[in-house]
Each structure stands twice: as structure tokens, then as C-alpha cells.
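Forwarding the complex inputs:
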Amino acid sequence: QVQLVESGGGVVQPGRSLRLSCAASGFNFNRFGIHWVRQAPGKGLEWVARISSDGTSQHYADSVKGRFTISRDDSKNTVALQMNSLRADDTAFYYCARVVLHLSGNYFDYWGPGTLVTVSS
Amino acid sequence: DIQLTQSPSFLSASVGDRVAITCRASQDISSYLAWYQQKPGKAPKVLIYAASTLQSGVPSRFSGSGSGTEFTLTIASLQPEDFASYYCQQLHSYPLTFGGGTKVEIK
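Prediction (whole assembly, two chains):
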């Protein structure tokens, strides 16, 4: 069955870095783009970043552009989110999600359970 | 960037009620809209994609309508397991965006 599992969350000081990983299984990983979405505690969903199925295209939210980098390793079926210069407002649950490209409209069909990142001194 | 405005942000309803949640886009997104349900402590789950297509396995009491800039998620008869938060998402162009969410609570 399709599974996505995030790891790498934790407590980090402002200005420091953290690397999240999303491990995928149960499907042909190299056929799907992967996205990161975050949710501050008690708040709504915020899209963060995306990498295409072949790894050649990435997009970022304005709030993380220049600080976060998304990458993928198809040999390990993983997607990483390198987060630098972390700020207090980056504190959130981070989810990875698989995107389905449908003729009439794309959507995120599988999500991981999330990993919590807390930025605090 | 495309802004999505969801309303209401909070909804109190009873089991069996028909409820509707609206999502307005700041520009034409055709039918590139999805709806998600999220329960506390869980990841979101897709209900509707392409504005009106029911995801496999989702009960038929959920339906989506609209195109362009105005969209609606309707729950025909609210069930106890439907009390949750709901989000719309546009997948028309980057950066992707979500609506602010609607929390559906028991009256």
C-alpha cells in the first residue's frame, strides 16, 4: 500500500538548519511529484514546496524561497526538505504529499502523518 | 498569487443537516480546485478534486460544484464522523494555495 512517512523534525534554534525527509513506499516513486505542506499548531494549511517527478522542476512558497530547498533521491525513494535560516514562524507540522496529475485537475491523494518542527531559543 | 477565501470559517450544525462551504478564488482557476477534510491530529484527506469529482471511497453525501472563481462543497446530510475542518486548495498555478479553512462543529 502507498505510504509516505516524514522524519527529521525536532526543536531547533532560530537561524539554524534542519533537514526533513519523506520516505515513500508502495508505488512507482519516480512517476510522482511530491509536495510539502505545513500547518502551524491550531492554524490552517500552507503549501511550502514541490518537486516534479523527474526532479528537474521545483517551486516554493514566497515565505520559504531562498531558505528552503527541496530535492529527491529516486534510488532511496525519498524527498528531502533542507530548511536553513529557520524562524519562529516556521514552527509547524510538516507533511509530505503525493500529487496526482489528472486531466481535469490535480490533487494530493496520499499524505504522510507529519513531523513537528519547533523553532525556539 | 491566487488567494482563496473560504466561508464560513466556523459552522455549527446538527446531525442530518445539509451544509455548504464556499470557496472564492481571486482569479479564474477553471476547475483546478480540490477539497480536503482534516480531523484533529491527522493529515488531510482528499474529498473532491477537479471541483466536482468525488474521490474514490468518499461517501456520496459529499459533493462539489463550481468553476472559475466560485466553488461550493456540500454535505447533504451531516454525519457524526463529518465533524472536522475542511479546506479548499487551488492547483491552477504556483504558488499553490489553500483556503483559510472551515471548522464544522456539533450544535
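Chain A has a mean pLDDT of 97.
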